[in-house]
Design brief:
Length: about 180
């Protein structure tokens, strides 16, 4: 049994429809789709457009799956875990050497201060890492649901319409796609 071609719910045409995940992957070729997958053009009508679309790159960025940045950003984690902690540890080690060879109170204070600084950096890096892990774990079911939905979205290049194959009433455009996947 041949299932019908997917039509854009706005213009009712099949020739400018492309799977959102294929656009996001940078696929330049237009295909004809059914609910079961893509079909070869064969003796069907010629696809909407060929060649490079100048809007393809911003469009594929807009239609890409919206990955979340997790609260405590990666930059902060790298700054504390990979730069500030080792730097303050080296400083503490140097101050330790100085305090051993010349145990004046100024050198001892410097040693204590750099030790405290190292501990603070380690603590911040740990908290960042724990927060990221926790947010990822809490976010995982929502992200997976949204990703599954996103994989069923189609886009009509003629009228900037994003739609769900199984429910033609659910439509958006490339800027409001996130409302369809709730993420
Ligand atoms: Zn259309």
């Amino acid at each position: 049994m041949h299932s019908p071609l997917l039509r854009c719910p706005r213009c009712g045409q099949v020739d400018a429809v492309q799977k959102v995940s294929a656009i996001s992957a940078g696929n330049q070729a237009y295909e004809l789709y059914t609910r079961g997958g893509r079909v070869s053009h064969g003796n069907e009508r010629k696809p909407f457009a060929t060649g490079r679309n100048p809007y393809q790159t911003p469009l594929s960025e807009r239609l890409a799956f919206p990955e979340r940045r997790h609260g405590c950003s990666l930059v902060l984690l790298i700054t504390f875990a990979a730069i500030l902690t080792p730097a303050s540890a080296i400083l503490a080690w140097m101050n330790y050497g100085t305090a051993v060879s010349d145990p004046s109170s100024a050198h001892q204070t410097a040693l204590l201060l750099t030790l405290a600084l190292t501990l603070v950096c380690v603590a911040i890096a740990l908290i960042c890492s724990l927060m990221r892990t926790r947010q990822r774990r809490l976010d995982k079911p929502r992200r997976e649901r949204a990703l599954t939905l996103w994989n069923t979205l189609y886009y009509c290049h003629r009228d900037d319409t994003v739609f769900v194959a199984d429910n033609p009433l659910q439509i958006a455009n490339s800027r409001t796609m996130h409302t369809l996947i709730g993420y």
